[in-house]
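Minutes, structural biology subgroup

Action item carried over from last meeting: produce the structure token record for Sporulation sigma-E factor-processing peptidase (Parablautia muri). EB confirmed the sequence was re-checked against the source entry. Recorded below for completeness.
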Amino acid sequence: MEVKNCKVQLQGTIYIDSIFLLNMVMDLYLLSLTARVLGKTATCSRIFAGSVTGAAGYCIMLCLPKIPYVLKVLLGMVPIGMLMIRIACRVKSFGELLRGLGYLYFFSFLLGGFIIFLNGRSNIFTEYGDSTMVLAGLGFVGFAICRRLITVCQGKRKEHFCRVSIPGDQGPITVAALIDTGNGLVEPVSRKPVAILEAKEWENLKLWMKPEKYKIIPYHSIGKNSGLLEGYEIDIMNVQGSMGEKQYEKVIVAVFQGKISQKGSYQMVLPPELSI
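Output recorded by EB:
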């Protein structure tokens, strides 16, 4: 018996309601993680609206016939992802939008990899099948792990920042300070560690700009072999951090001409010896 031109066509049934529900739940996880990393206060209603938009967009792209998958991703899922972030996080700049999109797909990759990993290490899919509820539940486990890691990382990051209060002309001024463990700047005579403050803040600290408190501090940095910073000795400086508050006396603070942080998130750099 001879068989010619035998073709077998396999057909499956796609339940669009299940796909929509699963994608909406996963998008809830992804947008929550993205908003947390971006530092955005995204309300539950905005996250839900963004998730519904993402799930609906995915279903629409899935139903479009005769379009290669790569084109569906580039022409469909990327704009949809941007729209999701815009709705949920209300980002203001295009750069922040792209950053949010990167986080969104990064977490998508992590959750997908986590589910695949569990599939290879357990028999949960064999026992219960790859139902919407099982996948959503596994996604929630991955979401909880990612959220915990983000919280730990952000907590450690906050430990590198503190608030510094210095008596000023019209009362104490308070600035945000970065605790820089690589700051080895010292005053050459006393060998005391030196903090660095933006020149703009010195407009309210003229009471310390006296000849007897004046210091010259040599330094070197990347791209510049050597240089000199002007500084002054401050009688009292309060440092407040997550571990409490501490007061330092006779602190030498150098004047930096320019912005220490390009984003303006802090105005001072503290050596570890002057931290809390």
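Discussion: DSSP finds six helices and seven strands in the chain.
Next step: EB to file the record with the rest of the batch.
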